[in-house]
Design brief:
Blueprint: E1 4-15, E2 18-29, E3 33-37, H1 44-51, E4 59-64, E5 67-72, H2 82-89, E6 92-95, H3 107-117, H4 123-136, H5 152-164, E7 170-174, H6 182-197, E8 201-205, H7 209-215, E9 218-223, E10 226-231, H8 233-238, H9 243-256
Parallel strand pairs: 3-8, 3-9, 6-7, 7-8
Antiparallel strand pairs: 1-2, 1-4, 4-5, 9-10
């Protein structure tokens, strides 16, 4: 059996009176690429943010690499000590749709900030790591540039390099191309494809259906608070069983034509 990197059990989440997730359970094995798909407002991004505790949950259990990082309203189950939770959460890298780069820092400074402050890495070592990751995303020549001088695609690639500089075991991508002009989407997806080829464990919230079909091991479909499908991409796109998925895919095809 492959190592389980993420396990979510009976996750419930609300914002005030508005329910967002209801009874969602899933596992992610080491090296798997999971695409999370569904209509806008279905709770896809919230699901990702719950994993690394950017959002709390109302009920359920979240484990990362066997460590219980969140346990709510589950008698007999408790989260690990805070120090262990922090250490485990640090193994998850997060890439947001809006880049979240510090505008007053150069690209290099943006990338070394977390390794130096969180991991207590020496600046010279962090710089070496940062330059290696910039090379990985094809932006070595932008180390001294400020974010305002970069295109949207370049900013997102810097954000990916910044996450990789923390040496994560899991990468979480929250709609990484939704804020980009269409012609810039490809350069970001190419970087994610390279990570997929390296067998990086990833969960990707995306509206890019062709990309999801190409790189995913599994496709998860969330709608109406629940996880409706969890299956290989061939089955999801070519032989969908649930009428809600059929309607969703038909709508996407109509919008493209």
């Amino acid at each position: 059996m492959n190592e389980i990197m993420i396990k979510m059990t009976d996750i419930h989440k609300s914002f005030g009176e508005t329910k967002v997730l209801e009874g969602v359970s899933l596992t992610v094995e080491k090296g798997q690429i999971i695409s999370v798909i569904g209509p806008s407002g279905a709770g896809k991004s919230t699901l990702l943010r719950c994993i690394n505790k950017l959002e709390g949950i109302d009920r359920g259990i979240i484990e990362i690499e066997g460590v219980v990082v969140t346990a709510e309203d589950k008698p007999g189950v408790a989260a690990a000590p805070k120090w262990q939770v922090r250490k485990t959460i640090a193994k998850t890298g997060m890439v947001f749709q809006n880049f979240n780069l510090f505008p007053h820092m150069t690209v290099l400074q943006n990338i070394i900030e977390a390794p130096v402050t969180v991991k207590r890495m020496k600046k010279a070592e962090a710089t070496e790591v940062a330059m290696r990751q910039l090379g990985r995303v094809g932006l070595l020549d932008k180390a001294d540039a400020y974010p305002s001088k970069l295109s949207g695609g370049q900013k997102q690639r810097v954000a990916i390099a910044r996450a990789l500089a923390m040496a994560p075991d899991v990468m979480l991508f929250d709609e990484p191309t939704s804020a980009l002009d269409p012609e810039l989407v490809g350069e970001v997806l190419d970087v994610i494809k390279k990570l997929a080829a390296e067998h990086m464990t990833m969960m990707i919230v995306s509206h890019e259906m062709g990309f999801a079909r190409e790189v995913s091991d599994r496709v998860i479909f969330i709608d109406n608070l629940k996880l409706i499908a969890d299956c290989p991409p061939g089955q999801f796109f070519d032989r969908p069983e649930h009428p809600r998925i059929v309607a969703f895919l038909e709508k996407i095809l109509r919008n493209r034509n």
